[in-house]
Amino acid sequence: MDSIPGVDLDQQGREVSVRRGGWVFLLMFVIAGRAAAGELTALEQLGKRLFFDANLSSPAGQSCASCHSPETGFTGPVSATNQKTAVYQGAAPSRFGNRKPPSAAYASFSPKLGYEAADETYVGGQFWDGRALNLVEQAKGPFLNPLEMNNADAAEVVRKVQAADYWPLFVQNFEAELKTADMDAAFEMIARAIAAYEASSEVNSFSSKYDAYLAGKAELTVQEKRGLDLYVGKANCAACHPNDRGADGSPPLFTDFTYDNVGAPANPRNPFYQQTASVNPEGAKYRDLGIGGVLKQPDHYGKFKVPTLRNIDKRPSPDFVKSYLHNGTFKNLKEVVHFYNSRDQLPSEFADPDVLDNVNREELGKLGLTPAEEDDVVVFLTTLSDGYWNPASAAPPGPVAGPSPSGNPLVGDRFYGAGEVARVRRFHPRPPPVASEDRPPVR
User: More exposed terminus of the chain, fewer Cβ within 10 Å: N or C?
Assistant: First the structure.
């Protein structure tokens, strides 16, 4: 294993100095435990710097935020791309993955991937297909994926972080561990820091109008209330996207973290179909098998992780286009709600999905909503965008799983469990109203 060059540690594991490029950078020991801006811990600050660093790809130019921007709820930030293909180009020119970027917000609450026998479904994990068991493993993936950030190995990523101006902050967070760390261990630290930022209150603020409504700090409009009633009733959205607080008072996450085949029409504009045979040997015949492809289980072909609906409409301007479902085939919420409502009644309106088997025909596809009711549901969904209010101005709506006391995101169940927030509701009675193959895909 490669060692970590350029770090001098004394016998207690404390850094004496950091040498980089002929310059000596004295470590600043006065970094506060929480930054004034955003109240981030030192580890979360480090994770944020890593998350937004566009020099960590090969070639340079792509960061985590290139596909997961806060302005859009930590998903795709380019309106033109969302409108056309919905799939983002990697750091290497002309390389594309096969899915739209999922939201990084609230992903930290997903439990470790497991199987719920009572519901006959997998729950948790990361990415659309659950191939990463937890958030730390997820954070490693894009760095080494040739269709994303395209680094050759972990050592290449570590060397780039060593060359960054925030390397002293990295050492401050991991000084004891760096004393004996090799490149793989340092890469793990990078992933842990990113996971810590993705689990921070900056990424998961619970600050939507709906949160304010639950806290008694805002009122829904008449149309928003109608949409809420439909959401938990006739439209059956809450079956997979629960909107009620947990038994402990924790705020809703608007996902049960399960996997489902909703019959999403194939996206013919997906550039993955045109990738070279070395990337996509099936060409135009490619079918995305979802978690079933990862697990080699035909019963789960075509199933993808149920996303959170938080920030589903968050965008920087009214004319900004977002894309929806795992392949980005729909371009606005009205299209999505109409599809869920009428997929089985008006099949000629929609192209076939990649996998016709396993399509969920029990909970969606023939909801019987009128066009006006579809609009009401859409309006309610717009209340789920963060940034409406500051939860710190009032008592919090309830506990959410927090970081471990040690500050180490690998300790406890913060990223490996958090099962108490995953309330599986598929095939359960509706809640009452309130108010690929071995080749890893890019996303």
Answer: N
Give the pLDDT score at 178. Answer: 93
State how far the Cα of 302 lies from the Cα of 353, in Å rounded to an integer: 8
- Read off the pLDDT of residues 199-240 as tens digits, 9 standing for 90 and up: 999 999 999 999 999 999 999 999 999 999 999 999 999 999
Q: Give the H/E segment covering residue 174.
A: helix 167-178
Number of residues assigned to the chain: 443
Q: Which amino acid is at 6?
A: G
Give the domains, in start order, of the chain with CATH numbers: 7-421 (1.10.760.10)
pLDDT per residue over 31-77, tens digit each? 233 433 458 999 999 999 999 999 999 999 999 999 999 999 999 99
Burial 25-46 (b: 16+ CB within 10 A, else e): eebeeebeeeeeeeebbbbbbb
Q: Which of 86, 77, 126 is nearest to 327 (CA)?
A: 86
Q: Give the closest residue to 85 by CA, choosing from 303, 259, 355, 275.
A: 275
pTM: 0.84
